[in-house]
Write a structure and sequence with these properties.
Length: 289
């Protein structure tokens, strides 16, 4: 099926507006974000019940539906490890809350260059231990947040509760971005620039390096991770590594990786105001229900 007119126009607009520059490493400093930069917009507050708490000094938002199902999800937002959560993330999360009747827990974690993964994964592991176990809990993330979710899944200690569903939206599987297929797609990707995301990924990896098993899932263990569904678009330079990861996990015991690929979609298209996003969100909701 051909991409919609809306998606083609949006991709063209991103190119004209130089959307890749939003992840220019020079834009990001060690200055902390303010509450106004990461709080849910008023439109989201009208759809779900929102409570705010803290965990290890991180702000944590809990978005609950009118009639909770008794299930929940931990959602980790994207932004190349450097950008704060955006309105598009909040709208997606609220939509999934309403569609699935799950309660979503959304931590606001610190960002590069102020931190590395060593500051993030241990806290996420503790947060998971604090919220999961008593009720079925899904693990969901987009972009860099999807990669962090997979890092968390690999890092869970033996005996820790496992997600009942893991959904990864446009994740990065190799923080070195060395796959030549990614370089081939890069000129058609209107949102991601290899040099920029490679630099931000290296900052997130810190002294362990971007090829460390602690940050790059293609170098980490792939066994006993449960059922993982990966959504990826073919205009996303990260797309080839999604297939590479699925190949690595194909014969791994206790792991089932399903690739849901949409032709001609860009990175994180499910956050965008296009028909394909509506279709993908409905699919994600079915998985979470």
């Amino acid at each position: 099926m051909s991409p919609s007119l809306q998606s083609r126009l949006l991709a063209g607009a991103m190119t004209l507006m130089r959307a890749r520059e939003q992840f220019n490493p020079k834009k990001f400093t060690k200055e902390p974000s303010t509450a106004a930069q990461y709080s849910p917009p008023p439109s989201v507050e009208k759809r779900v019940t929102i409570t705010r708490s803290t965990f290890r000094d991180w702000p944590v938002f809990t978005l609950a539906p009118e009639t909770p199902s008794g299930k929940q999800a931990l959602y980790l937002h994207g932004g190349a490890w450097a950008a704060e959560i955006q309105a598009g993330h909040w709208n997606l999360i609220a939509d999934l809350v309403v569609r699935t009747s799950r309660t979503f827990v959304v931590p606001i974690f610190p960002l590069v260059p102020a931190v590395t993964h060593r500051d993030i994964t241990p806290v996420l592991t503790d947060l998971w231990g604090a919220i999961a176990g008593e009720v079925p809990t899904a693990l969901v993330g987009d972009s860099a947040g999807a990669t962090m979710a997979l890092n968390l899944l690999v890092a869970l200690p033996e005996g820790a509760p496992a997600p009942d569903v893991t959904v990864l939206l446009s994740p990065t599987f190799d923080l070195t971005f060395a796959n030549p297929e990614s370089a081939r797609i890069a000129p058609r990707d209107p949102l991601l620039k290899l040099d920029y995301i490679r630099a931000l990924a290296a900052s997130y990896a810190g002294p362990d390096g971007p090829d460390s098993e602690l940050v790059s899932p293609v170098h980490a263990r792939v066994d006993h991770l449960g059922a993982i569904t990966v959504f990826t678009g073919t205009r996303d330079l990260l797309n080839p590594d999604a297939h590479r990861y699925a190949d690595l996990a194909r014969d791994a015991p206790g792991t089932q990786v399903t690739i849901e690929e949409t032709a001609d979609m860009v990175h994180d298209w499910m956050l965008m105001p296009i028909p394909e996003a509506k279709t993908t969100r409905a699919h994600i909701a079915r998985l979470l229900r």
